Amino acid sequence: MGLKNETSSSYNTKAFYKEYVEGMDSRELGKQLQSDSERLKKLYKDALTQRIPKNTSPDEIPFTQKALSLISALTKRLNPIRRLIFGISIVAFLSHYLLSIVGLSGFVLHPLLLPVSFIGILLILLIELLEKSDFQKELDFARDIQLSLLPASMRSAPQLEIFSFAATAREVGGDYVDIIKTEKGTYVIIADVSGKGMSAALYMVRIQALVHLIINKLHPSPKELFLELNDYIKSNKKDKTFITACAVYFPHNEDYFTLARAGHNIPLVYNRERDTTYKIKSDGFALGMTTTANLRKTLTEKRYHFQEGDSLLLYTDGLVEARNDLNEEYGIERLDGLFSIYGSLRAKTITQKIQMSLEVFMGDENLADDITFTTIHKLPKPKRIS
């Protein structure tokens, strides 16, 4: 085992070099180059789409117009003062070589043009880096807030052990998992807001607050909970967001649970008596995709036996759609097979086994989507001591 000396040491050229080249292995550089190339391609396509007339092929557009469209799309992201500095730097750079070509290299300002151009571009780069750093700090703060709203990994309820796992593809994400205990039973909700990033995370926070409000006020069944949520989402006609979700209710001291699934991934249940897994299929549109009246007709709520030693697995699509370096999906079959092996174990162990399997499968690949899953295991009834 290697030991790292964490005592402070002098900052020298060697330390600077190590910091500078950190993460610059060929694999990581290739992935970052591909990511930046895709981002530039998207910017280029968006710029052409906004500029070219309809029914015009990109091949018919002159190269100069394409170049100007791309530069315009880039400079629009700068504020006016940075745009001015950028323009001066470009003009100074071109003027330096133009004067050299026409034989005016002896012009008094000629030696200054190239340094002015370089300093201008460097100044913009430094300011943009500082701004990005400040924005990253805000994102990290938002991430801390979002994570604080999620339930603790390990939760317990009467005769239930619940263990959850969550990982976001970006700093913040749109996956939602919650465990709400009431006097009569325990609710477990998992959901996936359409989209990624900050907008999905903010919407998730709104939904979480509404879920707690509805449950504490109405104590609804899973179907009634989804109907109330759908009313809220559809109340804003401009809102095009939709949410896939699954809600489960475990009544205290009962050997069953009730479940409703609104367009979400099919849950898996392990039955200890038969030592096998089942896919829980129930109908229902995603929230926000149809009217509440239509959802009331199509959304089904079912009751399932849940006895000692049984386990239930709820997950978002990021789990089964995770890919490795061969572009293969993790898949429901792999998850089902793993769950059938470890389904009789405690919730924490099952969740950790799935996490380890996923990490081995993905290797060094980055997350393409948020991954969230939670395992509920039915514990034996506590023995009475006479």
Provide keyphrases for this structure.
11 helices, six-stranded antiparallel sheet, 386 residues, alpha+beta, Phosphatase 2c, domain 1, five-stranded antiparallel sheet
Report on the architecture of this protein.
This protein has helices at residues 13-20, 26-51, 63-75, 80-101, 110-149, 197-218, 222-234, 292-298, 317-320, 332-342, 347-362, and strands at 154-157, 160-167, 175-181, 185-193, 243-251, 256-262, 268-271, 276-279, 301-305, 311-315, 371-378. It is an alpha+beta fold and 386 residues long. It folds into 2 domains: 40-48 and 60-149, no CATH class; 153-378, PPM-type phosphatase domain (Phosphatase 2c, domain 1), CATH 3.60.40. The strands form 2 sheets. Strands 1-2-11-10-7-8 form a 6-stranded antiparallel sheet. Strands 3-4-5-6-9 form a 5-stranded antiparallel sheet, covered by helices on one side. Strand 5 and strand 6 (256-262) form a beta hairpin. The protein is elongated and about 100 Å long. Residues 1-9 have low confidence and may be disordered.
Short description:
47% of the residues lie in helices and 18% in strands.
Shape: elongated
Helix count equals 11
Biggest sheet details: 6 strands, antiparallel
Number of separate domains: 2
| Structure summary, number of beta strands | 11
Tell me the CATH architecture of the largest domain.
Answer: 4-Layer Sandwich
**Which sequence of strands runs across the widest sheet?**
1-2-11-10-7-8
CA(first)-CA(last) distance = 52 Å
CATH topology of the largest domain: Phosphatase 2c, domain 1
Spans where pLDDT lies below 50 across 5 or more residues: 1-9
Structural class: alpha+beta
Share in helix: 40-55%
Mean pLDDT: 83
Strand content: 15-25%
Order of helices and strands: HHHHHEEEEHHEEEEHEEHHHE
CA-based gyration radius: 28 Å
CATH superfamily of the largest domain: PPM-type phosphatase domain
CATH class of the largest domain: Alpha Beta
